[in-house]
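To: structure desk
From: M.T.
Subject: fold request, one chain
Message: Could you run this one when you get a chance? Sequence is below, nothing fancy, just the single chain.
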Amino acid sequence: MIDTPKNDNNFTDQKSLNALKLHGEKIIYAVLLVLAVFFGWQYYQKNYAKIDTVAADTYTSISVRDERLVQAYLNPQLDEATKQALAEEEKRLFGDIDALVAAHGNTVYAWQALMIKARHQTNNNDLDGAVATLSQATSINLDDDGLIAIAKIRHARAMLANGDTNGALSIANEAMPTAFEASRQELLGDIYHAKNEIDNAKSAYTNAWEVLRERQENRAVLALKLQSLGVNVEPIEPTPSVVSIPNTQPVIEGGEIFEMIEHDSAVADTQNPHTGN
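Reply: Done. Structure tokens follow.
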């Protein structure tokens, strides 16, 4: 066995000490960074992830109760006692929606809940309430231009129905994603028609029709609006498309945005051709 000379050990120790002095601060910062990331992730899991779960569960309950109310109101033979009970349940639903928005205001769940509330208010002819609710929805800080556009279009339509044509026009003139251009132009046509600006209404409706033509998408109510103003349009023949499985992911994933647009179109077909109501 060969003994290592003491001076070699001293040299090695001195070399390690110099390296520690040179890189020690970087090593400490690296360790602190790793610890910060670890504890930050732990904090997120214990707080924000839990909050998201609570918001999701609350919205699910609201959605189920909304569906029950919708189904109940479809009964044409409701007696006064039942109507009063449904009105009380709707009032409680609104309170829970307001509580969800207050606690989780910048989430997609708050946005969805406000859409439900605005629909009920519109059905109850509470247009002032619907305008206020949809205004609140447009102010939610969501990183989704599509959801913001849906809220803006509904907001403008509520304002138009409530007689605020200038306010509706201001919103309709805001920039929106190209996927919503047909709906935006049709909305502009409705607003101009309400203002008795017929030439502008014809132009906007025609613009909407041309966008739909490019997409090979027919919209019967828009054709009626054009024809009522004396504009003959060439029918749009939709091209056959492959049937796809509907996306059942939450709205935040973008899967239900187009489902909502289709729902809006279906509702529009049952509304007044010029006011959207």
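Reply (cont.): The two ends are 99 Å apart (CA to CA). Let me know if you need anything else for the meeting.
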